[in-house]
Amino acid sequence: MCSMSLREHALSLFRSAVGTVRPAPMLKSAVKLQGDGCPQLLVKGRAFPVKRDLYLVGFGKAVLGMAAAAEEILGEHLVRGIINVPLGIQNSLQRAGMQEMLLKPHSKIQVIEGAKNNLPDREALKGAVAIRELAEGLTADDLLLVLISGGGSALLPAPIPPILLEEKEKLTKTLASRGAAIQELNIVRKTLSLLKGGGLARFAYPAQVVSLILSDVIGDPLDIIASGPTAASSHSIQDCLQILTKYNLLQSLPESVETVLSHSPTEPAAPEDYSHVCNVIIGSNTLALDEAKREAEGLGYATLILSAAICGEVGRVAALYCQLVRLGCLGFAGLGEGPQGDEARGNLLQLAAELDIPGLNLAKFLQAMRGLGPERPVCILAGGETTVRLRGAGKGGRNQELALRVGLGLHRAQAAEGRSLTRCDVVFLSGGTDGQDGPTEAAGAFCSPELVREALRDGLDVEAFLSNNDSYTFFSQFQGGRHLLVTGLTGTNVMDIQVILIRAMERS
Q1: What was the pLDDT predicted at 489?
Q2: Of the listed ranges 93-102, 328-337, 457-466, 492-501, the one predicted with least confidence
Q3: Is 0.90 topped by the overall pTM?
Q4: 101, 228, 351, 367: which has the fewest C-beta neighbours closer than 10 Å?
Q5: Is 475 helix (H, G, I), strand (E, B) or coil?
Q6: CATH classification of 3-13+286-504, choosing from 3.40.1480.10, 3.40.1170.60, 1.10.3210.10, 3.40.50.300?
Q7: pLDDT at position 56, please?
């Protein structure tokens, strides 16, 4: 197995992970329609009678494929639908030959594309208004099927008047640039939104609302995914104010935002207000990681899923991954139980304690490393979503920056420790399952200590690229950007996937 094949294997594992969370198969396994005279919608075994009309709305990066599958299942029972999907996704799927994720000609479902670069815009607002109007017109005998996936927050922008869309967008971008996590962003978004934080469900009352959700948030919290348009919010106005205070924004808010916050209810709506709603998670990145593990084992790798909930500042997560790789390489060199191995384990445990990642399978990893010989390559898989604090004006995304930071960290470790680490081939891949990493056409990037070494030989200042948050420009310097992971929009979204492949080099 050569270094090139490591890269090909990493790409294959990423593609298999994304392929298994395609929206149509997941929706078809969760939803059935049975009976003709008095039809029932079955959602994971729970029955919902279709008394009169059945409507559909949706918003998110995976919703087009979900809607295509839903229309096939619902047939003539579907009266009308409206979905908000990312700009360009229909053309992207058409070019990729993914016809099964596109609606049929003369569909009853209206498609509105918007949210360029995953930011709310006028087209997304137009779709949100249409979805609200449809929901408001429903009766107690109607059933509303709501399709939700990651990216739904940007695709359902309806700020509470007098807040303007541009004001809300600017506030959200400022929060993100200061390192706010997706959970924090969504708490602020839903506090300032008509449709988020359960707003869509309230507009649809008294109709029965059934939401099918593809999760892109760690822990699958219903009121955080796409900012929870059909879920009772567990957050109050105080939670929003605390976040704005944390990021030093409370004193610089637009007057319109101050007006809305001053009139917001101090307590979230009571859970009984949502008795007409059923929310069902139909997919998450756990499924994606399980499929990648199965394929990696088939390729001969000793494979471990580290966590499906990787989170934290990108630099700290990169340091964690570097210590994992370092320990694996020391193990291959027979030095895992010596002073260097003890130091790597100590660093690893300290970083893990600082990051406090849910479900981190560190004990199992350490045990597995002790039992491995150099004859079998290692695959470490993880999923989740890191955060980047923007300090520069460069171009990139969290996956590209994570990959570059891991490559730089491994290069430094090799320079410090010499042969024990240079006897290993290592490839690191981080990619967004939606096919988009930041405002770029890349989904992520591949990196290795060799790439960083090549860059330094060519006179490139890797630290300067990172300081300017310019990882995309860095990776674009090499062989037409071959180290960038470019997939096109995938039609699904279950957070990010990381693949670490380590093999011992053959000794000459």
Answers
A1: 87
A2: 328-337
A3: no
A4: 367
A5: helix
A6: 3.40.1480.10
A7: 98
Buried (b) or exposed (e) across 229-259, using 16+ Cβ within 10 A? bbbbbebbbebbeebbeebebeeeebebbee
- The Cα–Cα gap between 367 and 362 comes to 9
Cα separation values, 322 from 57, 212, 357, Å:
44, 38, 16
- 23-158+194-233+270-283 fold: Rossmann fold (3.40.50)
End-to-end CA distance of the chain: 15
Q: In the structure encoding, which two tokens stand for residue 237, read together? A: 């106005």
Which tokens hold the place of 113?
């594309």
d(C-alpha 442, C-alpha 445), whole Å: 8
Confidence band, pLDDT 50/70/90 cuts, at residue 470: very high
- According to DSSP, the β-strands at 378-387 and 302-313 are parallel
CB atoms within 10 A of CB 389: 13
Residue 483 amino acid letter: H
Residue 134: closest CA among 213, 56, 231: 56
At residue 441, φ and ψ (nearest 5 deg) are: -85, -5
The burial class, CB within 10 Å (0-12 / 13-18 / 19+), for 72 is middle
Q: Which amino acid is at 366?
A: L
CA distance 191 to 182: 14
CB 471 within 8 A of CB 394: yes
pLDDT, tens digit, 9 for 90 and up, residues 480-498: 889 999 998 899 999 999 9
Long-range pairs for 2-9: beta carbons < 8 A, 24 or more residues apart? 3/425, 3/427, 3/448, 3/450, 6/425, 6/426, 6/427, 6/501, 6/503, 7/427, 7/446, 9/296, 9/299, 9/301, 9/427, 9/501
The domains of the chain are located at 3-13+286-504, 23-158+194-233+270-283, 161-192+234-267
**Most distant CA pair in the chain: distance in Å?**
76
Check if the beta carbon of residue 468 is closer than 8 Å to that of residue 392: yes
